[in-house]
Design brief:
mainly alpha; about 90 residues
């Protein structure tokens, strides 16, 4: 799918300069930037949706971990004391 975008002269110059430094085409630089942006925003949206689902579940059940419980559990990651995820409670 061919798509065109309009960018101002300053940004165009910066892209062309970077392309020269990286020995890539300006097209490659722009495509890579867009791909990275979309990937980052999809991850951000996924995190947001996961948080909203967690909040909805908490509102329904009241089950949770305290911040301290989560920090203690996380502090043991990668150690011999590592445990399974703690059970939530009301």
């Amino acid at each position: 799918m061919a798509t065109s975008i309009k960018i101002d002269d300053e940004l165009k110059s910066r892209v062309q300069h970077l392309a020269g430094l990286r020995q890539r085409s300006a097209h490659w630089i722009m495509r890579e930037a867009i791909a990275q942006y979309v990937e980052r925003e999809e991850a951000r949206e996924g995190f947001k949706q996961e948080a909203l689902a967690s909040w909805a579940e908490f509102q329904e059940t009241g089950r949770h971990l305290t911040g301290k419980e989560a920090r203690v559990w996380l502090s043991k990651w990668g150690t011999e004391a590592e445990t399974k995820f703690p059970k939530s409670h009301k």
